[in-house]
Amino acid sequence: MGSKKWRWGVILDAGSSGTRLHIYRWKDPEKALKGASEEELASLPKLMTEKKWTKKIRPGVSTFGKKVDQVGPDHLQSLIDHALQYIPYDKIPDTPIFLMATAGMRLLPTVQQTALTREICYYLRSNTQFSLPDCDMHIQVIKGETEGLYGWIASNYLLGGFDNPDQHQHGKGHHTYGFLDMGGASAQIAFAPNATEAEKHADDLKLLRLRTLDGSPVEYKLFTTTWLGFGVNQARQSYVESLADLYPPSSSELPDPCLPRGLRTTLDGVPVTTPKPKNTILIGTGHFDECLKKTYPLLGKDKPCHDNPCLIDGQHVPAIDFDVNHFIGVSEYWHTTHGVFGGKDDKAYDFATYQKRVKDYCSQDWSSISANFNPKKEHDPKNGQEACFKASWLINVLHDGIGVPRIGLEDLPQANLSKGAQGALEQAKGKGFLEPFQPVDKINDIEVSWTLGKMVLYAAGQIPPESGDDRFPVGFGSNLVGANTATIPDDFQFAGSSWRPIGSSNGGNVTAGHGSDWENDDWDMDAEDILDRAKTRSTTGFFLFLAGLALVMWWFRKRERRMRVYSRFQSFARRRRSHGGKYNGMHSVNRSPLTKLTTKLFGGRTSSGGSYERVMEEGELDRFELGDVASSSSGSGEFFSDEDSSSDHSRGSKGSGGAAGSMFGRSSGLATPTAASGGGIGGGYGFETVGTVGGGMSALNRSGLVVRTDSRERLSLPLSGGVGGVTGRRSRAGSPTRMKSPLGGGISPMDER
């Protein structure tokens, strides 16, 4: 119950080290609009996810660059199987699936990238029923700038900066948060510059457009860029190469200040245990200050800046105002500060505290460090041996590269917040979100991932625009300075979703067959729906309903009151049947739900097969036929009607016990189905006739003639003229139940009622 109201989305984050599945769910916009409050109408769609809806496998998709035919069965299928465990079967054709590859795939040659994306799309289309209308949009290698933009959406969505901007005023009219991400191969930054910088660097910004539940467009202008090769794994590789350049090529051992003291590894980071290895190895010295100095040149701060200002590797970035630009960092920013070095309970990042922890750890002997490892993933040997380099790289990128103030050592000017905003932001301050930088893994128990931002954009695109105005589509593209606000830039990337209801001719990637969902919304409610409805309805009306119901039940507590109402209802029903009822031969009078309810409440005669009324028009008899049934005469015999005995319908059935002969029932029209305890078909249903015949003889021809000429008249058959006696009864039987009158001579005809 309730599954029809949900929309689902699947996205695969194809990173350099592995592929992670994410499943998201949100309420269908048309159904979310019902009973929505003013606050909800001004908000973005509410997306949900659960921990069990994610799964990561290794290695990354990029490792299949030379074996593309294996990426489907050997890599993707396990993720698809996991998704199918949680998405309802009937929703799969309406569920979009995306695979978006990041830095790992960006490092592959273009030919391998193209071959992989085409093979992935073909495999998903051939082996799943997910919605995949456009391969180029759903299966792609995304740019680092796009990855950063999606991450920016996800961060601000979870922090509430979009829906409640008045509660996140950081000063100078700024209410959004910056986003920092670092993976294995690249690093990203995305933020909205302050008003001065936004005007100065308008050509460098991206225009992002979302849509709230009421259909209103919401626009943001932000800067985003990426540094390919600046992820921790690629940076480590560059560092080892630079370290080797400091020593003669014949050197068999290279002192490494970024490894714990006494640790010996190959240049690829594999621990070495043999006394005299054949190849060059690294020997850890545990000098962290020296490690910081040797990793600093990798920032490329000395490269020429062609468009001031620049931060890292000569790339232009508008000046960051840390008074109002507060950043959150995900992925390696979180793992490197909260993994090996602890700090899980830290409310905010403190540079002085963090640097002390790193120095204490890296100065230890490797034998002491490895002896204290526990089975937890973040404390495994590989993470332990790389922790010192990762910490040095993060510190250099964060503080010397991006310029984040060193909290604990450097004073940060306080933002000029209003008095009201100060109180509203106390909770965010306690979590560190008002500091210049705060590493996070989850916000409100939801993992901060750029994939969430992509799905928020998709869900917002399903909301119908205000007044059907298509001029402001959901998506992002270049910020066209001086252009009309409705102008769509050439590089605009649409959300990929359609706001038209499912089943419409212009529904895009949606499927047909959803029309009934809108009509039967009240039957789709689950417990969560009921709670939602209860929040938006007045409790006063609910209690008035209960009071009225209790009053009605109190009045009906006496049986004589119930019977009085029931008798009036029955009189009304009989008048309606006699004047306005439609009939076609012998048919069942349908019992309405109200009739069934009154029968249960007030009592009354019922039968197991319902209430039947035999009403026939002249000339209709020939086109009505009953199936064969067993004879129910007290003896055995063969019965014939006055029709041609050679007719297919002329012969009756032989047998004993049960109802009268089948031929009699078919030709005369006097057989009425009834529940029977014996005889009939399988003992289930018999047929009741005008008379019960005994002794093997019957005046059936006469009865048949009477039926065909006077079937609409009241019939009264004499009992004295038959052999063995024939019990007559009226043709308009009110009930299919068998009369229990005893047979015998001298029984007077049944009185008409």
UniProtKB/TrEMBL annotation:
Active site: E147
Residue ranges that the Swiss-Prot or TrEMBL entry lists as coiled coil: none
Region (Disordered), start-end ranges: 628-665, 712-753
Cleaved signal peptide residues: none
Keyword Zinc-finger: no
Alphabetical UniProt keywords: ATP-binding, Hydrolase, Membrane, Nucleotide-binding, Transmembrane, Transmembrane helix
Binding positions (ATP): G184, A185, S186, A187, Q188
Annotated Pfam families: GDA1_CD39 (PF01150)
Transmembrane segments: 539-556
InterPro entries xref list: GDA1_CD39_NTPase (IPR000407)
Record-level GO cellular component terms: Golgi apparatus; membrane
GO-annotated biological processes: CTP metabolic process; UDP catabolic process
GO molecular function: ATP binding; GDP phosphatase activity; ribonucleoside triphosphate phosphatase activity; UDP phosphatase activity
PANTHER family from the UniProt entry: ADENOSINE/GUANOSINE DIPHOSPHATASE, NUCLEOSIDE-DIPHOSPHATASE MIG-23
Family of this protein: Belongs to the GDA1/CD39 NTPase family.
Name of the protein this chain belongs to: Nucleoside phosphatase family-domain-containing protein
Organism for this UniProt entry: Triangularia verruculosa
